[in-house]
Amino acid sequence: MICFDNLSKRYPGGFEALKNVSLNMDAGELAFLTGRSGAGKSTLLKILMLLERPTSGSLLINGKNLNRLSNSQIPSYRRQLGVVFQNHQLLLDRSVFDNVALPLQVSGYSRKEIGRRVRAALDGVGLLERERHRPQTLSGGEQQRVGIARAVVHKPRILLADEPTGNLDPALSAEIMAFFRRFQDVGVTVLIATHDINLVNRMNCRIIRLEQGIVADNGENRGAAV
């Protein structure tokens, strides 16, 4: 499903954020990406989102080399992805419904289909009754759930999360992780970058550890796809 093949990323000035990274993830697998700040987690996710291009090596999704995608093909590729951010990145001047609807509006879905999908996504994260609220009236955990609903409303094949529980207490963090597990259960490939080692250890999933841009542990002996 996802294959990093000897991939490196060097920024202007010489800083090498990723060094010869080789990783594979199966379809429907849930894995955690860990490491200290600056280890390369965010860069790896940005390359998956095609916000960055590798300096060398390849990224393949279902056998297709993303290095060969033109800029005009990137939007089509990104429709396969759902992304959850630590700070939610919700639009405060729009309702919960309108925030979740954004990916569908960009893709040109009909109003009827948008309504059906948005309400199904909000129901899935337990926020259907809040669809007309503004994000600032919600708790931190509820805002994160809105972000998850927005990330999955278009039924992505791959779900990426960058520190999704960084601002939440342990109970809410466990709740958010349970949502990710549910998406894995229906075949979505999930990769979560996090510092929360205690929570990760309780999940009994594969842990991929980066150190200074190098894969220190690919986690293949733990947490096989379920």
Q: What is the β-strand count?
A: 10
Helix tally? 7
List SSEs in N-to-C order. EEEHEEHEHHHEHEHEE
Share in helix: 25-40%
Task: Report the C-alpha radius of gyration, rounded.
Answer: 17 Å
Which residue ranges are poorly predicted, with pLDDT under 50 across at least 5 consecutive positions? Answer: none
Q: What percentage of amino acids are in beta strands?
A: 25-35%
Structural class: alpha/beta
Determine the oligomeric state from the structure.
single chain
Secondary structure elements and their pairing?
Elements lengths: L1 E9 L5 E10 L4 E5 L6 H8 L7 E6 L2 E2 L8 H5 L2 E5 L10 H11 L4 H14 L15 H13 L5 E5 L7 H16 L3 E5 L3 H7 L2 E6 L2 E4 L9
Parallel strand pairs: 3-8, 3-9, 6-7, 7-8
Antiparallel strand pairs: 1-2, 1-4, 4-5, 9-10
Helix pairs in contact: 3-4, 3-5, 4-5, 5-6
Overview of this protein structure:
There is one protein chain. The protein is α/β, with parallel strands linked by helices. It has a domain of 65 residues. Helices cover 33% and strands 25% of the residues. It has seven helices and ten strands. Helix 3 runs parallel beside helix 5. The longest helix has 16 residues. The protein starts with a strand and ends in a 9-residue tail after the last strand.
Task: Describe, in short, the structure shown.
It contains 7 helices and 10 strands. The protein has 226 residues and is α/β, with parallel strands linked by helices.
Which keywords apply here?
226 residues, alpha/beta, four-stranded antiparallel β-sheet, 7 helices, 10 strands, 33% helix, globular
